[in-house]
């Protein structure tokens, strides 16, 4: 169908249309005449269709009202009155993405699906949720998702509880999270960005039902909405559906959601703030220093992209000059930057971690003096070329690791659209990149640094320093506040809180009726493809080395890896494999210093990196396959140079620069510290699996908490032990880099394969031909049941075991069991009733099964909930319709969309683990044939797993100590 500018299509007026070459799409900008809604259509052949609706939602306080509404509108609506329609959709749709997100000034509701019928079903539920939510008639929704006073009996202690309340307690446990919040507060004292849109736990309980409802009434109107339709879909049908079912019911109105500009400061502000560490922690070198600048507006396409490149150039590359200057001066042990261009007034930050407050002046002077030097003497042109090249490569590749492209383009469009500018501004990057390239022959970047950083007084110097026991102080103050409040209440008021608590519990524990559940639209099993995705591997050989080729279209980019079996390394040297992978490409070689090497990599490739990896075995539970992998990607004509660089790194890396090694060790340790708090569920789950799984124990020693302790030991004893460390690194290199250990992989079509074939000798000549004797590792199973103590305000609780070791076999039906446990039992017990931000089951073919919670206020209660899953499954009873829903949700997870590089990696993983296409077809068939009786039959498996009583908890030190009798060992993580 042909669309004309000014034409009216199902209530939508077409305002603008053009082809955008950069994203290979026809873009159409519409406005809905009656309601005032804005709509962007991006037409292309991507079968992963995306819909999103967003609203400008500038908060006026830190109660988290925008965030709580984002959760709450998905708790039932006019047409879909189930308590958790969001969960019902995850269970029973073929969505490839389904979520909602709150930003500093907007809230968005994106979804994606490859199935058109499914896509329209999801769109219907989301539109009904945002425009007609049940929050107006059901105050329990705010209580559950936001906050409430919990008091089951009048004699109990009064507590705050709520999903967002506990989510944000977890977010505020991370010093990096506190730092980013305080940066915004210091720079934006007079506008919306000075508030915490997610909610500050201190202020969340100030939110009333009236304010909550008022926020939705004000901002959730089509006149304040921004809609996306993306991909290979029928636009005519979509516009008809949106108009007829929703937008025609609204009249356009003026909504004051304008984001006021923060007036610039006359001089830099200096602020000192505190974050909590445990009483036992050492507070030396735990301070963060941050220098921050407000840099124009995000509606300037140059600022949007150029300052992103400048941040990468100054602070992210291996030889980044500003990072190097700060590390050389010993200001801190880790340096990083950020450029937030997703708000109206973008913020550029330079952050030093593991420093001291008394270094603040030196920090500020080094930043400003280094930048002055760069402006006056000029930035290295090779470094500029390298940074522009890698930025352009990533933009053109658009490999978002499974994140739907349409959603990425929507968020990019909102960086201008939300502020009343053209939504296509930042999607058309070609002209901006051309302008950037003039920097190779001009002082383009130097002038931007001068204007937006050196001559910019709208800035702040933030000192975030540790305070022992601050979290405990705050908890004690909160307890006393609640005790006083409870004492001030009349008998009637206490009874009312008890009544409301019981009313909420009743709502949470009463299942939706079959009639209500049937309002949620769903597909049938006939809508599901019975075939599995092509993950075929072609086995080839060059010079006696096996090459695995996954043939797929990659837009003329070759994805290549060199996989070296590491079973020849002694058991006590295993952590050194990971350290080696972290150093390769980041230290000198015989031909290049690490700065020049980094430039060569960024100019000639899309990246070269090394990692330690472990693959389980599908047939033998105790068997696994460890590798040190070198990965590179490059356009076809740059493959020869890319492989020269890989060969150079493998054959001639030198470890003479001890100062550089120490910097990398300190940075690695710093990044893992952040993960220990931000992603504690992953840390706890891996720690748990390491008790009983040899593959997981190997991984724990190369990437988990055990690896963190290894790095900590190297740093603490650096001067006396570094020569031994270097000696071991050379020994590992000598054993690992042998043709005898090597498998080469390539993802791409014949042209990409030939590019590898014609140049692979470069790498093969750089490794030895030694025959490597494989080691026999002795990993002992041990139920350590540890409590890992951190200053976090929440817990991450993991419990499980390997069911294959108990004599059970893997079946695809177990994946349906996992869906049921995650989205029914654990969602309700751990999240809805327990108040944790998340609770889910992990289950893999190798036999590991674990229950894990995320940002959880509880500990013992969660472990008890895991044990009771046995009773839940024993009594499991459901309808055929519900069973179909669980199966569809399971298939949706099996069929997660993969980019070409991800497909290649998955194909190789299947090959190494010994999983054939027939195995995958059998698994899919078992999923599709699962019955309620099959699920009940897993009761003995679950009983045996939980009765092994293996668990690990990472979290609040006081909470863990309170439950110390549960544990075999308590360990302070940051001692």
Automatic annotation (TrEMBL):
One GO molecular-function entry: hydrolase activity
Keyword RNA-binding annotated: no
Signal peptide extent: none
Enzyme class: hydrolase
EC number from the UniProt entry: 3.4.24.-
The Peptidase M16C associated domain, residue ranges: 464-714
Protein name: Zn-dependent M16 (Insulinase) family peptidase
Keyword Hydrolase: yes
PANTHER family: PRESEQUENCE PROTEASE, PRESEQUENCE PROTEASE, MITOCHONDRIAL
UniProt KW keywords: Hydrolase
